[in-house]
Amino acid sequence: MAAAAVTGEYRRVKTALFLIACGWAGAAPHWLEPSNRLLLSITLVCLLGGYGFRTVFLRDRDKTLINSNVAASKSLQDDQLPTVDVLVAARDEETVLERLVRRISSLRYPKQKLSIWIIDDGSQDQTPHLLDQLRNEFANLNVIRRSRSAGGGKSGALNKALGQVKGDWLLILDADAQLEEDSLHRLVTYAAKGGWSAVQLRKAVMNSSQNLLTRFQAMEMAMDAVFQQGRFSSGGAVELRGNGQLILRNALDKCGGFNEDTVTDDLDLSFRLLIAGELVGILWDPPVQEEAVETFSALWRQRQRWAEGGLQRFFDYWPLLTSNRLDFPQKRDLTCFFLLQYALPIVAFSDLVTAFLTRTTPNYWPLSLAGLTISGLAYWSGCKTISEGPELPKPDPFSLLMAIIYLSHWFLVIPWVTLKMAILPKKLVWAKTNHQGQKALRA
């Protein structure tokens, strides 16, 4: 039985309890004997640090993951290929939509088996006019229009299309996405032959040379793919990333479509697929290309949404995640990931504040250091891997050090977002990322 989309009841209460628990965990050890504090730190480093090192190691050891195109080397013939609907939720995307439609239309895939669906979610720029022009040029382009106040965010826009699309598979893309001509053919072949219900493409940054911030995001996307592949190898969970995700229509229907009560439809759906026992795979190559945000203010807004959606799904589905629907490796993976990604930043912040107030030494710095070291190893592993798409930044010592420093922004984002979630009522809004279009391509 699949897990239906939840409505997120009592999220503020759950978040407040989580915040209190992490605050207490960060402060309490300061009143222990120094020897006990050291034992606690060593134990956590061995458990959680060991999980992180093992995840990166398993990815590097599994050559079929790194050379994932080998798994799909024997492509399906045209008559064997399933029908695919490409879904794009678009709001004010005049700078990138024409490029996207032309790129999708140029994919080497049987035209009678490929349809493009653009959901115009109340755009106020030239997007509606542009779509009218493109629809006259491309016969397989379909346009669905929603009012700006329709609600449900990106999930609501995608659900609007589910009543009309008929394809066997859905390819979900962001408006700035770019694919190589053979990407869909290879992706569908990999999904069909692997028995997957969903597959996530590695995300690659097309404007990494724009500035240091976009360069670090390119490294971060490679690091994320390394962790995803390592979690896959250890029997853990593979998560969808919104852009470049191929989903079996039947599996999506069993899960109740897209959840309109979450700010991150991809992360929410990842958990529902996991609980339902549906298999999710990941491909290193070919990647889906996208734009990285170019300013710190845009990064801060984006990461707040990611952090909020990430926490929401754990609070919403935790009873099912701890049930017998998941096996031990999956539960172990999710527990360690949750503690490192969401609990550690709050605990470390509380630890630092308490150390300052009590004039004692911080206790959790070894675990924080281990977490950043693991991230550095994953940076190095990803950036040294031969990759299709935009060239990845070279993992020289200076770049690795600066990227690790950049990654520490999560130690501010997670505590801040958790505090907001515990205090303020949630208002679901479309917090879209602005795309630069041709400017990003020239970078």
Number of DSSP strand runs: 7
CATH level 1 class label of the domain at 74-211 and 236-294: Alpha Beta
User: What value does the Rg take, in angstroms?
Assistant: 22 Å
Strand content: 5-15%
How many helical elements?
16
- Overall mean pLDDT stands at 91
Query: Which range best describes the helical content: under 10%, 10-25%, 25-40%, 40-55%, 55-70% or over 70%?
Result: 40-55%
What strand order characterises the main sheet?
A: 3-2-1-4-6-5-7
Structural class: alpha/beta
The CATH H-level superfamily of the domain at 74-211 and 236-294 is Spore Coat Polysaccharide Biosynthesis Protein SpsA, Chain A
Spans of at least 5 consecutive residues whose pLDDT stays below 50 are none
Tell me about this structure:
With 443 residues, this protein is of the alpha/beta class. The protein has a domain at 74-211 and 236-294: Spore Coat Polysaccharide Biosynthesis Protein SpsA, Chain A (Alpha-Beta Complex), CATH 3.90.550.10. It is 53% helix and 11% strand. It is built from 16 helices and seven strands. Strands 3-2-1-4-6-5-7 form a seven-stranded mixed sheet, sandwiched between helices. α4 links the parallel β1 (84-90) and β2 (114-121). It is globular. The model has no long low-confidence stretch (mean pLDDT 91).
